[in-house]
Amino acid sequence: MIVIMERRATEDEIQNVVARVEELGFRAHLSRGEERTIIGIIGDERPLSVEALEVLDGVERVVPVLHPFKLASRDFKPDKTIITVGDVKIGGDEIVVMAGPCAVESREQIFETAWAVKEAGAKILRGGAFKPRTSPYTFQGLGVPALELLGEVSETVGLPVVSEVMAASDIEAVSKHVDILQIGARNMQNYSLLQEVGKTTKPVLLKRGMSSTIHEWLMSAEYILSNRNYNVILCERGIRTFETATRFTLDINAVAVARQLTHLPIIVDPSHATGKANLVAAAAKAAVAAGADGLIIEVHPNPDRALSDGAQSIRPESFQKLMVELRQLAAAVGRCM
User: In this structure, what DSSP letter does residue 80 have?
Assistant: First the structure.
């Protein structure tokens, strides 16, 4: 449930409610809006009396939250969350594009790509250091040397970086070099990993599992939020269906549904969803039209020589053309890029 404080509630009254909630054995999470403060109560609320909180000074009303994802719910936070990464704001009027190679392969490759995507208008550089692959015999990423390259290119080119973290033991090393921690589709329900990234202050990009429902996706976000890291970005990247024409099926419905259910920013990965470079532009445009807050797109200077996911990577010149088209579309739906 949530406690909605009166508009004129004092800080002492707010803290008194928090203290009472914690005294009763629950955790309190504050959401401070422009007009009022909402206090989320986390724990098994069944034995908790609404009347016990409504009598406290400064309390306007106590409202049950019907969804099991309490902190991710719009009931808890009606206004959209905007996450700041350097000078970039994700979740506002601007549609933010993250772009770069699936994996860091060399210094030359990552620098060439970074300069190209920045020139085209990307605001965040993506690049994998650790690559979870279906086959143990395929390229698994350069690991720590790739992280060091990402840190170097970020400082030189001036782009924040997003990269995947695969294990709790890697969080510290990845956090030293990147600005956003990505949780891949295969780890969406790795709850111990979610709890550990929830203990950091880094923004977390949470990809939807390939066979996961929207409800399960939001519950995974709840694991991170419940550990007091409120900087969660959701990423729809396609789900597994009976269709085989594309790598996955881009669930464009999920953007609209999640928008109604949660205040968290939502971005779309058209590269993994389609698995084909010649379909990326169409899927990206559909995501913008559906209301996505951003895109994460794979760009590689030589896709035919890429060590991973070359088939879905677009060339820098194609990316530049796509960005021009996306700006026009963004303007048509009342957004900017």
Answer: P
Encode pLDDT of 49-104 as tens digits: 788 899 999 999 998 887 889 899 998 888 899 999 999 999 999 999 999 999 99
Say how far apart CA 121 and CA 110 lie, in whole Å.
16
pLDDT digits (tens, 9 = 90+) for 157-184: 999 999 999 999 999 999 999 999 999 9
Q: Which structural domain range is residue 206 located in? A: 83-332
Q: Are 10 and 43 in contact (CB under 8 A)?
A: no
Domain CATH code at residue 229? 3.20.20.70
In a domain, 337, yes or no: no
What's the rounded Cα separation, in Å, for the pair 308 and 137?
Answer: 12
Residues 245 and 286 placed together within one structural domain of the fold: yes
Q: What is the pTM of this model?
A: 0.90
Buried b (16+ CB within 10 A) or exposed e, 107-138: eebbebbbebbbebbbbbbbbbbbbeeeeeee
